[in-house]
């Protein structure tokens, strides 16, 4: 039902027939559980995008500075969330028998054309993916992904992150351990990954 609701919602927003096209559902939170039947029923193309702990945790903390998002500004809570998220990614990967594409966010930013070419081939697209994008009605709005001004660049860009936010070395060490474990698991099990 969630897939049908997503397609109907996108149809109303985009006013476009989506048959034969990919739609993207970005899953960022563990409470949004993907039923195992979805993997069998619709044969989705799964992409795991892994981001380093320091940049992720700083981004979460920065999001906590916005009104209504204060629960995200605690570094320890952000680190725990990050580590639990990585465990959930490994759990999903175990269900997919290697049938997913794995990449790291730094590769997407630093080798954009190469990664987009690899994804184009893996997805079997007729047209190559490109680094610039158009905005939708909800681009940059709460509840629809990235709310920073950087999303309004209209293209994949490298950002400086949040250098003024500090995270304790102990939290980073624990998060980095989870990151390395997840990265190695996703890389070793995937049939498709950027290298």
Features:
46% helix, globular, mainly alpha, 5% strand
Question: What do these coordinates show?
Answer:
- The radius of gyration is 17 Å and the shape is globular.
- The mean pLDDT is 86.
- The chain has helices spanning 2-14, 36-41, 53-63, 75-95, 105-110, 112-123, 169-189; strands at 47-50, 101-104, 192-193.
- The protein has 195 residues and is mainly alpha-helical.
- The protein has a 3-stranded parallel sheet, sandwiched between helices.
- Helix 4 packs parallel to helix 7.
- It has one domain (24-193).
Give the arrangement of secondary structure elements.
Elements: H1 2-14, H2 36-41, E1 47-50, H3 53-63, H4 75-95, E2 101-104, H5 105-110, H6 112-123, H7 169-189, E3 192-193
Parallel strand pairs: 1-2, 2-3
CA radius of gyration is: 17 Å
Strand order of the largest sheet: 1-2-3
Largest sheet: 3 strands, parallel
User: How many individual helices?
Assistant: 7
Order of helices and strands: HHEHHEHHHE
The secondary-structure class comes to: mainly alpha
How many structural domains does the protein architecture include?
A: 1
Low-pLDDT sequence parts: none
What is the helix fraction of residues, given as a range? 40-55%
For the termini, the CA-CA separation is 36 Å
Overall average pLDDT: 86
Judging from the principal axes of the Cα atoms, what is the shape?
Answer: globular
The amount of beta strand, in percent, is 5-15%
Number of strands: 3
